[in-house]
């Protein structure tokens, strides 16, 4: 079954990419661009910067006149592995023979660098380098191993055992040998090995990997790393933590691994701890876009309600990691509400992090860009700032491009689930679903022009069982929600419903429709979110909109206010809001008068946040000051 | 004349600490604590951490069995020099013989480390160290030299030539020899040498030092340093820059030096450039407290209107540097308005950066502390975070304590100036002024209980000349301003007046009174300051107030709103505001309803920002959300 997460217990069973096939719409296009452009773009850069070459050099060893010189940062191996994972998913999706050949070549080069005892890393433990595991805080050795193992999970599930998965097995065994009881009883400064080993245990049936994942989870918070415990979640145990904190990607990879361990070991206390941390993070430390890692410094979660839109980090990889966590919570708890966050992050963080052509990327995704930054050089010369206002072809720390590539390639795995009764649709995209429910085939076609339109149709193509339930997630923001049964009857849905479905003896040709409004709407922040007090944003369906300076008379976003008493309107394919453009004086900016100048009336078009910075450099803001 | 800045041209002549003596009130107390506690506290730490010992080790040199091991960061010499400067000012102020003895001992230890050719630095160019000037970007060698020279200026003006000033002279000559035309035509990554050499030229009469300062100023923006040009103001020339940017302390030291050079070389274009940069920085990049370095990252200025109170840096040293710049602009232009910023920074940033007992310090001075941070360990163990919610005894980068010590010791130098017509009072403190105007003695006593009361009295003690003008700065925020002449006549002052004075044939016993309201007032931000939109602050006279969680029912500052339709009231020695305490739900924090819950009415006491965190850990905010 082709899915990145395959829990053995839990409320819902994920449907794999062999069961769900995206057939049109936005995510179909994103997958096509990913296949046609992004994966090969990443391969190009990994070769050009010689990050793959590091494996060849380790394999060749040091010799007189040939000193060992390594390219890239200490974690660059992980980019190679994440690309391998993307390729494995893509090969499974399309069977692309060219990509399969590339995958096998890459496998050979990676494998040649593996040590006799399974250790595999190009930054430590080779001639002239620091010894293995001599810097667990920042060395990223287990992090890299984790990404190799996750790629192997993808390969096992899309292809079956091969040389790549055997390499990963030797790595996993080496990790267990080295970090098991009586070994190095510490953790890696960047979580990832936990979630990887837990899934590899599921994929291989080897309980030892799960046990090692459990040990790593339990060691977090035991302060086995030096200083900076908060940053890499070594300050408090996973069980005792109350909220996600520190480096956002680390925190969310760790959460994902902890859920996997909790689910496999039936550790409800651990599951509940992570769930509570997630819930509190969503209510206090998450941006409107779903962006996590609320602050620039340390790529980290900020304190509660510290959500500055201009200094947000909201890293693309943190979005991916948040989807990983939310998906695991969906499966474990059966609660559709986690799908709202997957949808929010996917449409606003992930989709926008890749340019329409698939060849440039945002690393950070702040909700406010104060100035129109110059575009990075066309030749993509490094380093390009990770927090700039424009997408870049590559970064010195280039975790996001390959991470986005693997996520888009596997995106169909997050669309739907089954239970013993039926199928649950979590993400709305044109697709076909062909699976078994309670041992009998159920085949569906989903048709929708979502999110342009708020109508999702499920047509039954085959139902070889009896009574089945077909369920939709109802987005929390959706209004005027109606379910239309195959007999044409219309059923109003309680606005508080988390999901809604129909139980029946479905026959081929039967259609079930979910309808709701996706009209653009004003959204206001909780009064405790200091940085956007007095502002409003416009959302349309799951899509967060933004204003760009390019569309503003005068071009100065600092001089814009909006009138939220007027509903946003759609015209000429764009959402427009009533606004005023001011002309404020240059003066000491604090004084007795709270009143503003009148400004000039204007109507301003907004665009989806994901499409920001696609027309050239621009200042941008999601949160618009209210007049 | 005992003043840190002695321009040879300009509109106003500064009065030295031998002419102005602070005799009571807040600044008298701060100077007393500085003398009794802070200076010796700094000396203790510099010995305990062996940062002074570095000089001994350089002097002793390396020998078998005695490898050279240096303590502290690469710029730690500068702390020793800033403390020497503080001591020199304090010796001049009080004649303390014990301190004079310490100063001489320190001089001997510093001098013993000086190389034959004048070079003096304990981090470079000694056995086992990197060569001199091999890392101009981050090495801080000229920065350290600059602080040594500034200390020598203090010594020359408070004492006269001695071994310390001769050491500095050799250093200055070495710098000119090395960095003059045909030498290393580059700059130091941290400005300071410019302002130091310009003043040393004034103090010694040596034109070569001024010329070298001019060369360094002109070289900024020529991109002679690697990367990061914005950070150390090597991105754009001083003449071409439009606003202060990059690292705040660097930017403001550079501005101070540029003004000095402009004034001495009668370069009006350069002066005007720096003045315009300052003005724009004040209107767009400065916090209500006068704090500069508006953002946490890089201790740097942010972009226009990027003024997040919780992630402000507003470093204490940047406050000192801003006072240096504002004072030079006061002297050069004669415009009293710059004194408003000196007052604002002094009362809110500088005074609060030192604990009442003089033994712990804030490095960063954000206007919003989200949580009650634990206090640093009582033994002062390093490292202590530079951005925490509590004062610390010392820091790994400990620039602020010694910088504050030298500034408090010389504070009387910023109080008043003379012109050919009379005396201008810029800062309101009880003091005596005894100077010459146009060659004839004028002696005054200033009496005031400012800022508790808005009344300043100048009494003439002696006037050996004829017609004289006595002028007061009128704070921009002051209302109901009146000047009362010696004859008792009351004169309303135009609210737009920058300064106000009386020309007359003053006789001993004549009194001139300035009166204005210091009643607490609501202050609102410019609508462009995103991070505090929808908030108000309370100021009382020059003092910015804040709320601490300790004073809040329930203790959760996130749940506070205030009612700005009710004027703040004074009761029991504290300012109180009408507030509501809310109890908001835990939910996704963005949605259709802008309305808040009602909350419970309460009255909340505020306290001066400078006194925050003096009663134990607390959450704190200056900007209070408006109901």
Describe the protein's architecture and organization.
2 copies of one chain form a homodimer. With 627 residues, the first copy, chain A, is an alpha+beta fold. The first copy, chain A, has 3 domains: 13-60 and 73-365 and 388-414, Alpha/alpha barrel (Glycosyltransferase); 416-517, Immunoglobulin-like, CATH 2.60.40; 521-625, no CATH class. In chain A, 33% of the residues lie in helices and 18% in strands. Chain A has 13 helices and 23 strands. The first copy, chain A, has helices spanning 25-48, 53-60, 76-94, 97-112, 141-158, 163-179, 193-204, 207-219, 248-265, 268-284, 316-333, 337-353, 399-409, and strands at residues 13-14, 20-22, 368-369, 416-418, 422-425, 431-437, 440-448, 455-463, 468-473, 479-484, 490-492, 499-504, 511-517, 521-525, 535-540, 543-548, 560-562, 569-571, 574-581, 590-591, 600-608, 620-621, 624-625. In chain A, the strands form 3 sheets. In chain A, strands 3, 14, 15, 16, 17, 18, 19, 21, 22 and 23 form a 10-stranded antiparallel β-sheet that branches. A 7-stranded antiparallel β-sheet of chain A has the order 2-6-7-8-13-10-11. In chain A, β10 and β11 (490-492) form a beta hairpin. The longest helix of chain A has 24 residues, at 25-48. Chain A is globular, with a radius of gyration of 25 Å. The model of chain A has no long low-confidence stretch (mean pLDDT 95). At the A-B interface, α10, β14, β15 and β20 of A face α10, β14, β15 and β20 of B. β14 (521-525) of chain A pairs antiparallel with β20 (590-591) of chain B.
């Amino acid at each position: 079954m082709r899915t990145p997460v395959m829990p053995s217990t839990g409320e819902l069973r994920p449907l794999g990419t062999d069961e769900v096939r995206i057939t049109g719409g936005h995510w179909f296009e994103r997958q096509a661009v990913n296949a046609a452009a992004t994966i090969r773009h990443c391969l190009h850069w990994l070769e050009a910067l010689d990050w793959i070459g590091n494996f060849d050099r380790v394999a060749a060893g040091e010799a007189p006149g040939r000193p060992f010189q390594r390219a890239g940062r200490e974690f660059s191996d992980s980019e190679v592995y994440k690309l391998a994972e993307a390729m494995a998913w893509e090969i499974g999706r399309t069977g692309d023979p060219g990509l399969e050949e590339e995958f096998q070549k890459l496998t050979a080069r990676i494998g040649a660098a593996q040590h006799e005892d399974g250790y595999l890393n190009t930054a430590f433990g080779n001639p002239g380098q620091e010894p293995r595991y001599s810097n667990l805080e920042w060395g990223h050795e287990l992090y890299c191993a984790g990404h190799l193992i996750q790629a192997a999970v993808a390969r096992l599930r899309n292809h079956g055992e091969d040389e790549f998965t055997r390499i990963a097995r030797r790595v996993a065994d080496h990790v267990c040998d080295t970090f098991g009881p009586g070994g190095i009883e510490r953790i890696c400064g960047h979580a990832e090995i936990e979630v990887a080993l837990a899934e590899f245990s599921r994929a291989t049936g080897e309980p030892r990997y799960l046990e090692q994942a459990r040990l790593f989870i339990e060691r977090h918070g035991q302060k086995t790393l030096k200083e900076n415990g908060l940053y890499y979640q070594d300050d408090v145990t996973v069980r005792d933590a109350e909220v996600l904190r520190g480096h956002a990607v680390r925190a969310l990879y760790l959460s994902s691994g902890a859920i996997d361990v909790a689910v496999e070991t039936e550790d409800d206390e651990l599951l509940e701890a992570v769930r509570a941390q997630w819930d509190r993070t969503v209510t206090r430390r998450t941006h409107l876009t779903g962006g996590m890692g609320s602050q620039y410094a340390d790529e980290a979660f900020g304190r509660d309600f510290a959500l500055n839109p201009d200094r947000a980090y909201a890293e693309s990889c943190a979005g991916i990691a948040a989807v990983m966590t939310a998906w695991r919570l969906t499966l474990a708890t059966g609660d559709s509400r986690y799908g709202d966050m997957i949808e929010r992050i996917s449409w606003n963080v992930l989709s926008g992090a890749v340019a329409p052509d698939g060849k440039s990327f945002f690393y950070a995704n702040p909700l406010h860009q104060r100035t129109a930054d110059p575009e990075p050089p066309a030749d993509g010369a490094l380093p390009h700032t990770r927090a700039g206002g424009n997408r870049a072809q590559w970064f010195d720390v280039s975790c996001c491009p390959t991470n986005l590539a693997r996520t888009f390639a596997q995106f169909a795995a997050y669309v739907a689930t089954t239970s013993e009764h039926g199928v649950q649709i979590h993400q709305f995209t044109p697709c076909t679903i062909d699976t078994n429910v309670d041992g009998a085939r159920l085949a569906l076609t989903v048709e929708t022009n979502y999110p342009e339109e708020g109508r999702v149709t499920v047509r039954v193509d085959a139902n070889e069982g009896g009574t089945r339930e077909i369920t939709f997630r109802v987005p929390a923001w959706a209004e005027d929600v109606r379910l239309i049964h195959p007999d044409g009857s219309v059923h109003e849905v309680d606005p508080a419903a988390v999901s809604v479905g129909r139980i029946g003896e479905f026959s081929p040709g039967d259609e079930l429709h979910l309808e709701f409004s996706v009209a653009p709407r004003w959204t206001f922040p909780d009064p405790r979110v200091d940085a956007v007090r007095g502002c409003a944003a416009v959302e349309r369906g799951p899509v967060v909109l933004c204003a760009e300076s390019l569309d503003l008379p005068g071009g100065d976003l600092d001089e814009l206010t909006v009138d939220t008493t007027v509903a946003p309107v759609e015209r000429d394919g764009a959402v427009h809001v009533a606004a005023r453009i001011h002309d404020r004086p240059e003066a000491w900016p604090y004084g007795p008068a709270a009143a503003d100048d009148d400004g000039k009336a204007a109507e301003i078009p907004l665009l989806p946040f994901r499409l920001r910075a696609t027309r050239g450099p621009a200042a941008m803001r999601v949160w618009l000051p209210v007049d």
